[in-house]
Write the structure tokens for this entry.
Amino acid sequence: MTTTTCRSCGAPVIWVEMKSGRRMPCNAVPKKMIAIDQFNGRLGFMVSVYESHFSTCPNAKEHRQRGKNGNGGD
Ligand SMILES: [Zn+2]
């Protein structure tokens, strides 16, 4: 897993490939959450989940506007 930084806010992110084949930036620092066993509804266990960076990035709007916005320069 390679950590990179978000181009718009500078937060550390990792890129995850979804089953759909789409790549998705997630926050590099996972959240600890409790998952509940689906068969035994009282049995919980700790899992680390990676949250989509789109939901936490303060500049998420910029991510959506692909195209002219990004690779300017030169
Ligand atoms: Zn960001």
In short: The radius of gyration is 16 Å. The chain has one domain: 3-64. The beta strands are 3-5, 12-17, 23-27, 31-36, 44-49.
